[in-house]
Amino acid sequence: MGLPWLVNGYVISLAATGLVMAVLAMSAQVLVGLAGLPPLGQAAYLAVGAYTAATIATVTSLGPIQLLAATAGGAVAAAVTGLLAVRARGTTFLMVTFGLGELVHAAANAWAPGGSEGVHTPPVIALPGLPAMVRPGWVYLYVLACTLLIGVAVALLVRSRFALLLRGIAAHEPRVQATGHHPGRLLLAAYVLAGGIAGAAGALSIAVTRYVSPADAAMGISALALAAALIGSGSMTGACAGAILLVAARDWAGGLLAGHGTTLLGLCFLLLAYLPRHRLADLTCRFPWRRP
After folding, report:
1. pTM value?
2. CA distance 191 to 196
3. Long-range pairs of 2-5 with CB within 8 A, sequence gap ≥ 24
4. Average pLDDT, stretch 126-139?
5. Number of H helices, E strands in the chain
Protein backbone atom coordinates (compact mmCIF):
# COMPACT_ATOMS: atom_id res chain seq x y z
CA MET A 1 0.00 0.00 0.00
CA GLY A 2 2.84 2.42 0.84
CA LEU A 3 4.83 1.55 -2.29
CA PRO A 4 4.22 4.90 -4.08
CA TRP A 5 6.00 6.72 -1.24
CA LEU A 6 8.99 4.34 -1.14
CA VAL A 7 10.17 3.85 -4.73
CA ASN A 8 10.43 5.77 -8.00
CA GLY A 9 7.84 5.99 -10.77
CA TYR A 10 9.42 3.25 -12.87
CA VAL A 11 9.20 0.65 -10.11
CA ILE A 12 5.65 1.76 -9.33
CA SER A 13 4.66 1.23 -12.98
CA LEU A 14 6.27 -2.23 -12.92
CA ALA A 15 4.33 -3.07 -9.77
CA ALA A 16 1.09 -1.97 -11.42
CA THR A 17 1.92 -4.10 -14.46
CA GLY A 18 2.55 -7.03 -12.11
CA LEU A 19 -0.93 -6.55 -10.64
CA VAL A 20 -2.46 -6.57 -14.12
CA MET A 21 -0.70 -9.85 -14.86
CA ALA A 22 -1.85 -11.18 -11.48
CA VAL A 23 -5.47 -10.63 -12.56
CA LEU A 24 -4.75 -12.39 -15.85
CA ALA A 25 -3.13 -15.24 -13.91
CA MET A 26 -6.31 -15.57 -11.84
CA SER A 27 -8.19 -15.89 -15.12
CA ALA A 28 -5.92 -18.73 -16.23
CA GLN A 29 -6.11 -20.37 -12.79
CA VAL A 30 -9.91 -20.59 -13.00
CA LEU A 31 -9.40 -22.97 -15.92
CA VAL A 32 -6.19 -24.83 -15.14
CA GLY A 33 -6.48 -24.87 -11.34
CA LEU A 34 -10.19 -25.67 -11.04
CA ALA A 35 -11.21 -27.35 -14.29
CA GLY A 36 -7.87 -28.88 -15.24
CA LEU A 37 -7.85 -27.14 -18.63
CA PRO A 38 -4.58 -25.34 -19.49
CA PRO A 39 -5.38 -22.20 -21.56
CA LEU A 40 -2.86 -20.58 -23.87
CA GLY A 41 -5.02 -17.75 -25.19
CA GLN A 42 -6.12 -15.63 -22.23
CA ALA A 43 -4.28 -12.60 -23.64
CA ALA A 44 -6.91 -12.54 -26.39
CA TYR A 45 -9.63 -11.69 -23.86
CA LEU A 46 -7.32 -9.19 -22.17
CA ALA A 47 -6.98 -7.46 -25.55
CA VAL A 48 -10.75 -7.56 -26.12
CA GLY A 49 -11.27 -5.99 -22.71
CA ALA A 50 -8.57 -3.37 -23.36
CA TYR A 51 -10.06 -2.37 -26.72
CA THR A 52 -13.53 -2.25 -25.15
CA ALA A 53 -12.26 0.02 -22.38
CA ALA A 54 -10.46 2.18 -24.95
CA THR A 55 -13.72 2.56 -26.88
CA ILE A 56 -15.59 3.51 -23.70
CA ALA A 57 -12.80 6.00 -22.93
CA THR A 58 -13.95 8.09 -25.90
CA VAL A 59 -17.21 8.63 -24.00
CA THR A 60 -16.14 8.61 -20.35
CA SER A 61 -12.84 8.32 -18.48
CA LEU A 62 -14.46 6.78 -15.38
CA GLY A 63 -12.41 3.71 -14.52
CA PRO A 64 -15.21 1.64 -12.95
CA ILE A 65 -17.36 1.99 -16.07
CA GLN A 66 -14.44 0.99 -18.28
CA LEU A 67 -13.75 -1.96 -15.98
CA LEU A 68 -17.33 -3.22 -16.13
CA ALA A 69 -17.51 -2.79 -19.91
CA ALA A 70 -14.19 -4.58 -20.39
CA THR A 71 -15.31 -7.44 -18.16
CA ALA A 72 -18.48 -7.81 -20.18
CA GLY A 73 -16.53 -7.63 -23.46
CA GLY A 74 -14.11 -10.35 -22.35
CA ALA A 75 -16.98 -12.56 -21.16
CA VAL A 76 -18.91 -12.18 -24.43
CA ALA A 77 -15.82 -12.99 -26.50
CA ALA A 78 -15.16 -16.03 -24.31
CA ALA A 79 -18.79 -17.15 -24.65
CA VAL A 80 -18.50 -17.13 -28.45
CA THR A 81 -15.10 -18.82 -28.70
CA GLY A 82 -15.68 -21.09 -25.71
CA LEU A 83 -18.28 -23.08 -27.62
CA LEU A 84 -15.35 -24.48 -29.59
CA ALA A 85 -12.73 -24.56 -26.83
CA VAL A 86 -14.64 -26.54 -24.17
CA ARG A 87 -15.16 -29.43 -26.55
CA ALA A 88 -11.46 -30.23 -26.19
CA ARG A 89 -9.43 -31.53 -23.26
CA GLY A 90 -5.77 -31.64 -22.25
CA THR A 91 -3.20 -30.81 -24.91
CA THR A 92 -5.94 -30.36 -27.51
CA PHE A 93 -7.52 -27.65 -25.36
CA LEU A 94 -4.13 -25.99 -25.06
CA MET A 95 -3.72 -25.93 -28.84
CA VAL A 96 -7.30 -24.78 -29.50
CA THR A 97 -6.94 -21.85 -27.12
CA PHE A 98 -3.56 -21.03 -28.68
CA GLY A 99 -5.21 -20.98 -32.09
CA LEU A 100 -8.06 -18.79 -30.87
CA GLY A 101 -5.60 -16.39 -29.32
CA GLU A 102 -3.62 -16.11 -32.55
CA LEU A 103 -6.84 -15.49 -34.51
CA VAL A 104 -7.74 -12.62 -32.17
CA HIS A 105 -4.19 -11.29 -32.50
CA ALA A 106 -4.44 -11.33 -36.30
CA ALA A 107 -7.92 -9.79 -36.23
CA ALA A 108 -6.69 -6.97 -34.01
CA ASN A 109 -3.87 -6.23 -36.45
CA ALA A 110 -6.30 -6.14 -39.37
CA TRP A 111 -9.43 -4.49 -37.99
CA ALA A 112 -8.87 -2.97 -34.55
CA PRO A 113 -8.76 0.84 -34.25
CA GLY A 114 -5.26 2.09 -34.99
CA GLY A 115 -4.20 -1.19 -36.58
CA SER A 116 -0.74 -2.38 -35.58
CA GLU A 117 0.05 1.09 -34.20
CA GLY A 118 -2.52 0.74 -31.45
CA VAL A 119 -4.61 3.40 -29.70
CA HIS A 120 -3.73 5.88 -26.98
CA THR A 121 -6.29 6.58 -24.23
CA PRO A 122 -6.72 9.44 -21.74
CA PRO A 123 -5.90 9.00 -18.03
CA VAL A 124 -8.49 7.14 -16.01
CA ILE A 125 -10.67 8.82 -13.38
CA ALA A 126 -11.21 6.62 -10.33
CA LEU A 127 -14.51 8.15 -9.13
CA PRO A 128 -16.80 10.99 -10.27
CA GLY A 129 -15.51 14.36 -9.12
CA LEU A 130 -11.89 13.25 -8.77
CA PRO A 131 -9.14 14.43 -11.12
CA ALA A 132 -7.64 12.19 -13.78
CA MET A 133 -4.93 9.89 -12.45
CA VAL A 134 -1.72 11.08 -14.06
CA ARG A 135 0.85 10.18 -11.41
CA PRO A 136 1.99 6.52 -11.35
CA GLY A 137 1.35 6.27 -7.60
CA TRP A 138 -2.36 7.01 -7.90
CA VAL A 139 -2.69 4.65 -10.86
CA TYR A 140 -1.00 1.92 -8.82
CA LEU A 141 -3.39 2.43 -5.90
CA TYR A 142 -6.38 2.31 -8.25
CA VAL A 143 -5.14 -0.90 -9.89
CA LEU A 144 -4.38 -2.38 -6.46
CA ALA A 145 -7.91 -1.60 -5.23
CA CYS A 146 -9.47 -3.16 -8.34
CA THR A 147 -7.20 -6.22 -8.06
CA LEU A 148 -8.24 -6.74 -4.44
CA LEU A 149 -11.94 -6.48 -5.36
CA ILE A 150 -11.49 -8.98 -8.18
CA GLY A 151 -9.51 -11.22 -5.83
CA VAL A 152 -12.34 -11.20 -3.29
CA ALA A 153 -14.85 -12.15 -6.00
CA VAL A 154 -12.59 -14.96 -7.23
CA ALA A 155 -12.08 -16.18 -3.64
CA LEU A 156 -15.86 -16.48 -3.26
CA LEU A 157 -15.98 -18.37 -6.56
CA VAL A 158 -13.28 -20.81 -5.42
CA ARG A 159 -15.31 -21.65 -2.31
CA SER A 160 -18.58 -22.17 -4.21
CA ARG A 161 -20.35 -25.37 -5.20
CA PHE A 162 -19.60 -24.45 -8.80
CA ALA A 163 -15.87 -24.71 -8.10
CA LEU A 164 -16.38 -28.13 -6.50
CA LEU A 165 -18.12 -29.32 -9.65
CA LEU A 166 -15.27 -28.02 -11.78
CA ARG A 167 -12.76 -29.88 -9.62
CA GLY A 168 -14.91 -32.97 -9.98
CA ILE A 169 -14.80 -32.65 -13.77
CA ALA A 170 -11.02 -32.31 -13.64
CA ALA A 171 -10.75 -35.42 -11.46
CA HIS A 172 -13.33 -37.66 -13.15
CA GLU A 173 -15.67 -36.10 -15.70
CA PRO A 174 -17.90 -39.19 -16.28
CA ARG A 175 -18.72 -39.36 -12.57
CA VAL A 176 -19.90 -35.74 -12.56
CA GLN A 177 -21.98 -36.41 -15.65
CA ALA A 178 -23.50 -39.47 -13.98
CA THR A 179 -24.80 -37.26 -11.15
CA GLY A 180 -27.00 -35.39 -13.64
CA HIS A 181 -24.76 -32.39 -14.31
CA HIS A 182 -23.71 -31.26 -17.78
CA PRO A 183 -19.90 -30.92 -17.87
CA GLY A 184 -19.92 -29.00 -21.15
CA ARG A 185 -22.17 -26.27 -19.76
CA LEU A 186 -20.18 -26.04 -16.53
CA LEU A 187 -16.91 -25.74 -18.43
CA LEU A 188 -18.39 -23.12 -20.75
CA ALA A 189 -19.51 -21.12 -17.71
CA ALA A 190 -15.98 -21.38 -16.28
CA TYR A 191 -14.52 -20.30 -19.62
CA VAL A 192 -16.82 -17.27 -19.75
CA LEU A 193 -15.91 -16.31 -16.17
CA ALA A 194 -12.22 -16.62 -16.99
CA GLY A 195 -12.74 -14.47 -20.09
CA GLY A 196 -14.49 -11.82 -18.03
CA ILE A 197 -11.61 -11.71 -15.52
CA ALA A 198 -9.12 -11.43 -18.40
CA GLY A 199 -11.21 -8.60 -19.86
CA ALA A 200 -11.01 -6.79 -16.52
CA ALA A 201 -7.23 -7.16 -16.69
CA GLY A 202 -7.40 -5.41 -20.08
CA ALA A 203 -9.15 -2.40 -18.56
CA LEU A 204 -6.53 -2.22 -15.81
CA SER A 205 -3.80 -2.49 -18.45
CA ILE A 206 -4.89 0.67 -20.26
CA ALA A 207 -5.22 2.42 -16.90
CA VAL A 208 -1.50 1.73 -16.42
CA THR A 209 -0.16 2.27 -19.94
CA ARG A 210 -2.90 4.47 -21.50
CA TYR A 211 -2.34 2.43 -24.63
CA VAL A 212 -3.62 -0.72 -26.29
CA SER A 213 -2.33 -2.51 -29.38
CA PRO A 214 -2.55 -5.96 -30.98
CA ALA A 215 0.63 -6.85 -29.06
CA ASP A 216 -1.56 -7.14 -25.96
CA ALA A 217 -3.01 -10.32 -27.51
CA ALA A 218 0.42 -11.85 -28.13
CA MET A 219 1.05 -15.47 -27.17
CA GLY A 220 3.88 -14.49 -24.82
CA ILE A 221 1.43 -12.78 -22.48
CA SER A 222 -0.81 -15.85 -22.47
CA ALA A 223 2.22 -18.05 -21.77
CA LEU A 224 3.22 -15.87 -18.84
CA ALA A 225 -0.29 -16.11 -17.37
CA LEU A 226 -0.35 -19.89 -17.76
CA ALA A 227 3.13 -20.21 -16.25
CA ALA A 228 2.04 -18.12 -13.27
CA ALA A 229 -1.01 -20.35 -12.80
CA LEU A 230 1.20 -23.45 -12.88
CA ILE A 231 3.58 -21.88 -10.38
CA GLY A 232 0.55 -21.31 -8.13
CA SER A 233 -0.13 -25.08 -8.10
CA GLY A 234 -3.89 -24.63 -7.78
CA SER A 235 -3.73 -21.57 -5.52
CA MET A 236 -5.06 -18.19 -6.66
CA THR A 237 -2.69 -16.42 -4.30
CA GLY A 238 0.20 -18.48 -5.62
CA ALA A 239 -0.77 -17.65 -9.21
CA CYS A 240 -0.78 -13.93 -8.39
CA ALA A 241 2.60 -14.21 -6.68
CA GLY A 242 3.94 -16.15 -9.66
CA ALA A 243 2.74 -13.47 -12.09
CA ILE A 244 4.39 -10.70 -10.09
CA LEU A 245 7.64 -12.66 -9.86
CA LEU A 246 7.67 -13.36 -13.60
CA VAL A 247 7.02 -9.70 -14.44
CA ALA A 248 9.82 -8.73 -12.05
CA ALA A 249 12.15 -11.23 -13.75
CA ARG A 250 11.23 -10.02 -17.23
CA ASP A 251 11.19 -6.25 -16.69
CA TRP A 252 13.08 -5.35 -13.52
CA ALA A 253 15.79 -8.01 -13.22
CA GLY A 254 16.10 -8.08 -17.01
CA GLY A 255 16.85 -4.38 -16.95
CA LEU A 256 19.63 -4.96 -14.47
CA LEU A 257 21.07 -7.59 -16.82
CA ALA A 258 21.54 -5.28 -19.80
CA GLY A 259 18.06 -5.84 -21.21
CA HIS A 260 18.10 -9.65 -21.19
CA GLY A 261 14.66 -9.87 -19.61
CA THR A 262 13.33 -12.23 -22.28
CA THR A 263 16.27 -14.58 -21.70
CA LEU A 264 15.66 -14.57 -17.97
CA LEU A 265 11.97 -15.21 -18.51
CA GLY A 266 12.82 -18.15 -20.76
CA LEU A 267 15.02 -19.60 -18.03
CA CYS A 268 12.12 -19.24 -15.59
CA PHE A 269 9.90 -21.21 -17.99
CA LEU A 270 12.53 -23.96 -18.25
CA LEU A 271 12.75 -24.12 -14.47
CA LEU A 272 8.97 -24.38 -14.32
CA ALA A 273 8.99 -27.22 -16.84
CA TYR A 274 11.62 -29.30 -15.02
CA LEU A 275 10.86 -28.53 -11.38
CA PRO A 276 8.54 -31.22 -9.96
CA ARG A 277 5.03 -30.01 -9.20
CA HIS A 278 5.31 -30.94 -5.51
CA ARG A 279 8.35 -28.67 -5.25
CA LEU A 280 6.33 -25.83 -6.75
CA ALA A 281 3.59 -26.47 -4.21
CA ASP A 282 6.18 -26.34 -1.42
CA LEU A 283 7.41 -22.96 -2.71
CA THR A 284 3.93 -21.43 -2.80
CA CYS A 285 3.16 -22.85 0.63
CA ARG A 286 5.91 -20.63 2.03
CA PHE A 287 3.57 -17.66 1.69
CA PRO A 288 1.80 -17.39 5.05
CA TRP A 289 -1.18 -15.71 3.44
CA ARG A 290 -1.74 -18.51 0.93
CA ARG A 291 -5.24 -19.91 0.65
CA PRO A 292 -6.31 -23.06 -1.20
Report:
1. 0.89
2. 9
3. 3/137, 3/140, 4/135, 4/136, 4/137, 4/138, 4/140, 4/141, 5/137
4. 91
5. 12, 2
- Tens of pLDDT, residues 7-64: 777 889 999 999 999 999 999 999 999 999 999 999 999 999 999 999 999 999 999 9
Q: How far apart are CA 230 and CA 249, in angstroms?
A: 16
- Give the pLDDT confidence score for residue 289 in this predicted structure: 39
Q: Are 236 and 155 in contact (CB under 8 A)?
A: yes
pLDDT given for residue 124 in this prediction:
96
Q: 211 — phi, psi (to 5°)?
A: -160, 140
Average pLDDT over every residue of 133-141: 92
Q: What is the largest CA-CA distance in the chain?
A: 57
DSSP letters of 211-239? Answer: EE-GGGG-HHHHHHHHHHHHHHTT-HHHH
In this structure, the number of other CB atoms found within 10 A of the CB of residue 163 comes to 18
The residue count for the chain: 292
Strand, helix or coil for residue 287: coil
